[in-house]
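Quick question, first post here. What does this chain look like in 3D?
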Amino acid sequence: MQDILDLRESALALKADERMIAYAGFSLLSEHLPSPKQGILKISASCRADGSGYLTLTFLVDTESDPADRNAVKDLFGQLSEQAISARLRGLADLCVKVPLDFMAPLDDWYVEEVNVYFKALEGRERLLLERHLMPALESILSCSFAAVEWWSSDDAPQAGPAGKAERRGMEGVHTLRDLFRRLFAGGR
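> Answer (accepted):
Ran it through. Tokens below.
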């Protein structure tokens, strides 16, 4: 008998092993929205032995359970394409891939979008690439403004993978933004 692959479980396992390095609040200010929408950008990094790697940008936008607002935000994020990012980064990024996350959890109040941006030289350059190049490009594409980036010390994060599973499951309640991210993206329940 063949085992059945559970895509939701596989995706959650991959998200649990991400190395979150930073987060930032942002406001969407588009004329297509009835009012500005607040969101959070979660930034994770994955570096390979050769120094290449990718930044995973996970956007969470509070749509206040309004289907019209959710659709307007979705349309706005439709502008976030590999072509748009590449044009603004002028050769710094080698590949951009959008990943749908809607199937992972029912989040009626939130719109979630994820983009992976691959760089041939990432290791040790995450802060420079993010703050000096990628965030200004995102502000231009999405008509948004970012708050200051909060860098997350790797010592603060629960250990990735099975070794940190017990610590992540022991997290009760959401008290800070870090706790929220741990619950959403580190497998804590």
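The radius of gyration is 17 Å.
DSSP finds six helices and seven strands in the chain.
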